[in-house]
Structures are given as structure tokens and as C-alpha cells.
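FW: tagging you since you asked about this chain on Friday. Here's the raw sequence from the shared folder, copied in full. Didn't touch anything.
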Amino acid sequence: MIKQYLLAPGPTPIPDEVVRAMAQTMIHHRTPQFSKIFAEAREGLQALFGTKNDVLTLASSGTGAMEAAVSNLFSPGEKVLVVNGGKFGERWQQICQAYGLEVIQLKVEWGKAVKVDVVEKHLKVYPDIQGVLIQASETSTTTLHPVREIAQLTRNGPLLIVDGVTAVGVLPVPMDDWGIDVLVTGSQKALMLPPGLGFVALSDRAWARTEKAKLPRFYLDLKLERKNQQKKTTAFTPAVSLIFGLHASLKMMQEEGLERVYARHERLARATRAAAKALGLDLLAPENPSPATTGVMLPEGMDGEKLLEYLRDRMGITFAEGQDQLKGKIIRIAHVGYIGAFDVLVAIGALEMALKKFGHPVKFGQGAAAAQEILMESLD
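HL: got it, structure written out here
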């Protein structure tokens, strides 16, 4: 028997409490029983997003929430600035182009965060930009972007639209306090659910923009969804079982306390980074690393794809690979959602063994020891 460990940044492990909630007998979605659960989940989402406004739940992936942000806020031909520092920055660009927007691309080296002064210069050069689209945590490069600082630039200007898929529930992203206009996430990351739910919240001025936006939309019509969700229901058939699970996962996060949730993610990330460095490995994003997942550069000449296959198929450990130019060169180790201290030790122990198998000189326990020094903080 090989026990499986899912340590990739989405989908992520699901707690037993959430599994049991999703296994409840199906109920009809136009009933008081469903409305009660849905209303309580909506309140939990508002606390998580840090907003007084509605957080809308969509039966979609996070990409559906991203698309809804574009289709509900803009008109054909309008100009937007897209920060493109990875695969999901590229996705913002692709969505905007698919809807006929004029995209000004701000290209950022993978593994680096965008510089605030560069964003400011672009806004001055293109004063007719209507929106700035960015990732809070660029999952593909394990990098944090300075969203809070950029929000200061856009507060009285273009809308700031943030992909928070590996940020919401991982670190504080209080949209009202920071001045974020649109914040989106998905169910399969920090919310500890299977894929299938997208979430999107809009500021007051973003809602005002929906009144004049002329891009086409039907299923992802946010005004229609808000009208229905304020009545504790949804415009179309919801993913009922996933909403049962959402209700349970939000309760777990509330019981732990969001500050402790954020501290746990930060501690697991520091431990993973310390372990990688102790093993002589470079980090993909050493300057602005995300607390959701750690990108680790593999030794020169090592076949990363074969290493990942060995870890998954022979050892039962699933990490994520690199994408595009990083394919075969990095691994991404997640510490997002339902992952704890001993999952990190499993990850590092397995990595030590796999590296040795593939010819990298490893002193067993060296990486694990570096991680343990940090993980002990939670046991004091």
C-alpha cells in the first residue's frame, strides 16, 4: 500500500468534516432549509473577504469568477492594464482579449513581483485605462504582488480587479480596507473544497460600473445573481453539495480564527522555504514568496518531470510541476488549506529521498531539521 498525499496548490486536501457535510442527503435548492445554509455561508464569505458587500457564489471554477469580473464591468474596446507575471496573469489577458478589450500588458519576469512605480507610470502614460487586473498570489510562480500598494494608486481611478485564488484564506486581503474593487477566488484552495465554486465580490463603485457595462453575459450576470442571492437563493441551480461543504469549511476557519489561519500558512511556508535552502536548492520567488505554495528550483540537469512522476507514483506524494518555460525545472510544494506541520515534514522527507534517488547529494534529515525549527513555534 502507498498512502497518497496531495500537496499541490489545488485541488487541495479536504477535511473529514467537509466530506461529511457534502455527503448529506440532497435537498431542493428552493427551500427554507437550503436558504438557511446559504445565508450563513454568505456571512462567512463576507468576513473572509473583508467586505460589507455581497460575495457571490457561482457554480464555476475560479476562472468563471474571473470571466464574470470582466464581462460585467467593461464595454467593448475599453482599455485595461493587465499585470502578466505568470500563467494566471496570462489568463487575465486572454479573458480580456476574448471580450474585445484593448489590453495594455505589463510583463513581469516569472518569480518577480510587479513594481508599484512601474504600475504608476503605466497609469500616467495611459490615463484612459478603465481597469487594472492582477493576481494577489500568482500560483504558477509562487509570487505575491503588492496589491495593497497598487490599490492606493487606483482608489480614485481605474477599477482594481484582483485574482485572489491562492490568497483569500491564506493571508489577509481585506478588500474594503485596501480599496480593492473586485476580488475573486475558487473553492479548491484555502476553502478546502473540491473544485466547482467560484466567488466574486464587488465594491460599491464596481457595482455602479455594472450599470453601464455593455459586454454580453447571461449565466454569469452578476446583477441577476446579486438580486437572487440577497434573497438567499441563486439565479440558476447551485452546486448544493459543495455549498454544504462551504458552510462546514467556513465554520472550521471561523473556529480556528482567521488570524491563526493566516499565521499557520505563513509558518508552513517559512518552514518549507527553510528546508529547501538547507538542501542547497534555490527558491523560485525568493524576494516576494507566496505563503500558499513554495516554488523550488531543481538542481541543474535534473529531469523534473521524472522526479515528480517518481514522487507521485512510487512514493504517493503529489507536488505540482512548473509551467511553460519552468516545466521540468521546478516543483511547487503547497501549504494551502487543510495542510499542517506534519504534512510539511512528509513533503520534505519525500523530497530528500527523491533527490537522492536522482543523484543529488543529500544528507537525510537536513531539510526536515530546518523545517522543524520553525514548525516548533506552533507547539510552544
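FW: The chain has 14 helices and 14 strands.
HL: agreed, and The first strand starts at residue 5 and ends at 6.
FW: great, closing this out.
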